[in-house]
Amino acid sequence: MKIAIIGAGILGMSTAYILAKRGFAVSVFEKQAVPPVNASSIAGGMLAPFSEIEALPVRFVRAGLKGIEFWDEFLGDDASGILQKAGSLLIAHPEDRHMLDRFAQHLHAVSDQWEWVDTQRMNALEPSIGNKFGKGLYMPLEANINPEPALVMLVEQLVALGGQILHEDVNPDDLKADPAYDWVIDCRGYIEGQDRDLRGIKGEILLLENHEFTLQRPVRLMHPRYPLYIIPRPDNMFAVGASVIENSDEDDGHVFLRSAMELMSAAYSLHPSFGEAKILDMSSAVRPAYLDSLPRIKIDQDHNYIRCNGLFRHGYLLSPIMGECVAHFLETSAENADFSLFSGLGHA
Which of 15, 36, 67, 335 has the greatest CB tally within 10 Å of its CB? Predict the structure, then answer.
């Protein structure tokens, strides 16, 4: 079966790799150079299903753990510098500690695979943070991935499996009418005016270099308006970001001054050495999200057309699961156990 996929972001490439591995003939169409500069490359790469329980229903948490397993198996011996499986840490300033207490109540309902950490335990996990935060929440099963090299590896593996990437800006209707393809899968993310139920959420990220500070795992700083994350990257670099600034009309890659100040302030509040850190990059991208912030798979069997969208800030966590759902459907014309997560019909 011959498949055309539009979009070489994380969802398009994950789906392409999974299909190619199952023997499908896959062509990926992407208008940019690959990997493209979009929400997939301008991302934190958090693989944090427990940290997202205020936004994700319980069944998505279980699916997210399978997403982490996918990356672990896919990267294998090449995981060094790309995948970190050291868990994640949630902390808050003293005036915001009530947010940690509220979050812990959600965790109790989901799993026992987490723990409160006091100052002594926090110092053992992250010695550079020091004593200023008092307590936090540690989730050992979470992970994070370095987005750009992960995308590059997907591209390389797709080509090795016989797939191809075509640098073309294509129209889905043209591909649907092309007899060369049996199915068309649209993974383009947010396009203004295309889907009335889809909105754009501006995610902004700073890349900092700091040789005076270390982290072993992502740290999420609870904030009254939105959570901020600080993620260690190779070579003394740190990604600092947030993904809940709504602005669907601008996708120019620029960062608002207010947002940049808040992100830099968050880094500095974690450790004063960030006051001397170098700013290597400041970027933004629009992330696609439905009103409930849950992703969708929409199938038009009359035209052999599938749209996958709405991953919001869960792209690296859930795209492999969506890809497996699509592959199972194309193989069997039936839905697998996870498909209902992406139906948009509500979830327990």
Answer: 15
- Among 110, 112, 10, CA closest to 59: 110
**Any idea how long the chain is?**
348
Q: What is the DSSP letter of 320?
A: H
Report yes or no on whether pTM surpasses 0.90: yes
| R_g of the chain computed on alpha carbons | 20
Phi/psi at 176 (5° precision): -65, -30
Distance between terminal CA atoms of the chain? 35
The 183-186 sheet, strands edge to edge: 164-166, 25-29, 2-6, 183-186, 305-309, 296-300
Query: Averaged over 214-227, what is the pLDDT?
Result: 88
Using the predicted structure, report yes or no on whether residue 37 has a pLDDT greater than 70: yes
Q: Count other C-beta atoms under 10 Å from residue 174's C-beta.
A: 10
Q: Please give the structure tokens belonging to residue 165.
A: 């990437």
Nearest to 306 by CA among 15, 1, 42, 55: 15
Q: How many CA atoms lie within 13 A of 261 on its CB side?
A: 3
Structure tokens at 207: 């890349």
Contacts of residue 203, defined as CB under 8 A and 6 or more positions apart, other chains included, come to 39, 42, 43, 241, 242, 243, 245, 284, 285, 286, 287, 313
Report in angstroms the alpha-carbon separations of 221 from 147, 244, 255: 21, 14, 20
| pLDDT recorded at residue 193 | 80
Q: What are phi and psi of 135, to 5 degrees?
A: -150, 165
CA–CA distances in Å: residue 19 to residues 6, 41, 64, 176, 341: 14, 22, 20, 18, 20
Decide the pairing of beta strands 305-309 and 296-300.
antiparallel
Residues of the chain above pLDDT 70, percent: 96
Q: What domains, with CATH codes, occur in the chain?
A: 2-44+146-194+292-342 (3.50.50.60), 86-141+198-290 (3.30.9.10)
Q: Which CA distances in Å does 224 have to 100, 241, 328? A: 11, 15, 41
